[in-house]
Specification:
Helices cover about 30% and strands about 20% of the residues. By secondary structure, the chain is α/β, with parallel strands linked by helices. The protein has one domain (about 15-275): Vaccinia Virus protein VP39 (Rossmann fold, 3-Layer(aba) Sandwich). The protein has a 7-stranded mixed β-sheet with strand order 3-2-1-4-5-7-6, with helices on both faces. β1 (about 55-60), α3 and β2 (about 75-85) form a beta-alpha-beta unit. α5 crosses α8. It is globular and about 65 Å long.
């Protein structure tokens, strides 16, 4: 009997289209305010880690914002930019800026070869995030660090709601137009399952205001972040649906001055490749003193009534 073919990862994102749209964004003049903010935060977070990373990889980050921000840190030796190129390659700054053409879903690094892997606003577009996290952990040396920022699940919630309402009215049903970004509550579990120690996740939410939803859509085009879902509708967007979406957006999500808001959620995650020197939680029953003694109170045994 022939063996069944191995299971394949569901293809949520058209990654070839993402690369093409990033190249188009570079040609249009990219909108980088979100990347610039994340890159500065990335540098601040790494500056707080008091150790040196001799070999680091910037995995998939669009543009050169992250590399420029990290160039001012003395704690990084060689930083390799790994990913699919989009447009011109930024010139190197010292040891920062070496480029390697690579696919974020199939890393070309040997096990235990890297001290640091960072990524900014890229990994939300991989089809197999758990698999990518496993590859990153394997590529890190013991006590190596992974630090990344991803677009979170509340991003563009206003646009998602407005398009769904407009399409339901004008076309009898909604089509997928905004990507199903990762939920922060699931990321800690994914890091642990990938084998990371000391996993940490946190969220940064940014509200951006625009004169109209069309200004937001122009920014998304210049970010290379327009709809790249495999399940996207392949026919052109109807003008009637677009205008109805704009009306709903303005009615539901405008402030008193008439400007509309757009939510961008940045999810941060970090983890370390396991090493014996790292802190570990105490084993149950290993405490040296009772909690009642520390609090200066009398311990009540099971079945005893309080105040008895």
């Amino acid at each position: 009997m022939a063996e069944a073919p191995p299971p394949t990862t569901p293809q949520v994102f058209d990654r070839a289209l993402i690369r093409w749209r990033r190249r188009r964004a570079e040609a249009l003049g990219p909108a980088t305010f979100l990347l610039d903010r994340v890159a500065d935060d990335l540098a601040d977070r790494l500056a707080a880690v008091l150790r040196r990373f001799e070999v680091a990889v910037d995995l998939g980050t669009p543009g050169a914002a992250a590399r420029k921000a990290l160039a001012r840190l003395d704690s990084i030796g060689t930083l390799i930019a790994a990913g699919a190129p989009a447009g011109r390659v930024a010139p190197p700054a010292g040891n920062i800026g070496r480029a390697l053409v690579a696919d974020e879903e199939a890393l070309p690094f040997a096990d235990g070869s890297l001290d640091l892997v960072i990524s900014a606003l890229a990994l939300q577009f991989v089809n197999d995030l758990p698999g990518v996290l496993v590859q990153i952990r394997r590529a890190l040396k013991p006590d190596g660090l992974f630090l990344a920022a991803l677009i979170g699940g509340e991003t563009l919630t206003e646009l998602r709601q407005s398009f769904a309402a407009a399409e339901s009215e004008t076309e009898g049903g909604a089509s997928p137009r905004v990507a199903p970004f990762v939920d922060v509550r699931s990321l800690g579990g994914l890091l642990q399952r990938a084998g990371f120690a000391l996993p940490v996740t946190d969220v940064d939410r940014l509200i951006v205001r625009y004169g109209s939803v069309f200004e937001l859509m122009r920014d998304l085009r210049r970010m290379g972040a327009t709809n790249a879902l495999v399940a996207r509708r392949r026919i052109p967007l109807k003008r009637r649906t677009l205008m109805r979406m704009a009306e709903i957006y303005a009615r539901r999500f405008a402030d008193d001055g008439g400007r509309v808001r757009a939510t961008f959620e940045i999810v941060w995650l970090s983890g370390w490749a396991p090493h014996p020197s790292q802190q570990r939680p105490l084993q149950p029953g290993s405490a040296k003193a009772r909690l009642a003694e520390a609090l200066g109170t009398r311990e009540i045994s099971a079945g005893e009534k309080a105040g008895g």
